[in-house]
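ARCHIVE CARD
CATEGORY: sequence design from structure
SOURCE FIELD: tokenized fold
FIELD CONTENT:
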């Protein structure tokens, strides 16, 4: 069995602007590092319930609101210090890690891929999520950072493991020096998956079965009207039985550990996006009608 995840208490930073940012205990202690995971609270979006901090250019929200929200979020993160440029990704659920070398110009358009690493100072790497796992990594010895987007497909493609590998190969990072933060995402409590997902994980990971648990469906309609759902099928053959739930947090924590990141250097947010609809956007929890949050990391220098 894998070691149980060390879930540390989240610091929820409340700001004067009404925006709430979740910060990782480990990254907060590192000098010269700015980071944060946005929530839905505050902001200028009228969509998704109004006064929301939607940071993604979705079809239901206006571009101006999103740009205003992004400015407010970044101002909240970096305070009165010099402006930083935000680098985002056009996320495609891949294992593709983009490398931003010191000689490279900072892109003004989103880069296609699901991870980005750099040694640039005053650049914020941003990952957009609404259930998927945002992972931020910092190496202060090599002044390198990385940000990764891991849904179930990206997790199967080992985006986080590849990301650490790229940091080693390109920036000579020692995994023992890396500090990682796994931000708010959908937890296993709310993440029922089908056989095709289980099969993909089994094909890739020797520990796949440890990532799934059986959860009995707590559908309130079924609980209230059980007779409606009685079937004539033999026990174990009805579709009311347990569903398999995937633990994406543990899957990505395992990838960090396998890549050599010390367990004590990994922080995990305790919030499940689907359980905390008051605080967070959840694609699944809101049946597809949701804004996007952002996990951001940068080195100030
Ligand atoms: Zn949940």
């Amino acid at each position: 069995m894998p070691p149980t995840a060390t879930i540390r208490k989240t610091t929820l930073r409340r700001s004067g602007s009404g925006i709430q940012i979740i910060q990782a205990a480990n990254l907060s202690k590192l000098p010269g590092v700015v980071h944060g995971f946005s929530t839905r609270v505050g902001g200028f979006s009228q969509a998704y319930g109004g006064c929301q901090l939607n940071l993604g250019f979705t079809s239901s929200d206006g571009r101006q609101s999103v740009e205003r929200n992004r400015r407010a979020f970044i101002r909240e993160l970096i305070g009165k210090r010099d402006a930083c440029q935000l680098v985002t990704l056009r996320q495609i659920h891949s294992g593709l890690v983009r490398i931003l070398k010191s000689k490279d110009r900072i892109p003004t358009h989103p880069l296609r891929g699901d991870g980005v690493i750099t040694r640039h100072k005053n650049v914020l790497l941003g990952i957009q999520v609404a259930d998927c796992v945002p992972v931020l990594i910092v190496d202060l010895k090599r002044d390198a950072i990385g940000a990764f987007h891991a849904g179930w497909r990206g997790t199967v493609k080992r985006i986080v493991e590849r990301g650490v590998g790229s940091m080693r190969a390109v920036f000579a990072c020692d995994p023992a020096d890396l500090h990682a933060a796994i931000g708010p995402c959908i937890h296993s409590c709310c993440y029922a998956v089908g056989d095709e997902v289980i099969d993909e994980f089994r094909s890739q990971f020797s520990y796949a079965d440890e990532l799934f648990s059986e959860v009995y469906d707590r559908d309130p309609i079924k609980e209230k009207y059980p007779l409606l759902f009685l079937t004539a099928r033999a026990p174990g053959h009805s579709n009311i039985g347990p569903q398999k739930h995937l633990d994406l947090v543990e899957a990505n924590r395992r990838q960090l550990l396998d890549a050599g990141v010390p367990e004590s250097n990994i922080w995990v947010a305790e919030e499940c996006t689907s359980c905390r609809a008051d605080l967070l956007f959840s694609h699944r929890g809101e049946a597809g009608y949701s804004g996007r949050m952002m996990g951001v990391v940068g080195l100030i220098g």
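CARD ANNOTATION: The mean pLDDT is 90. The helical segments are 25-28, 63-78, 152-156, 159-171, 195-204, 220-224, 248-258.
SHELF: design records, drawer C
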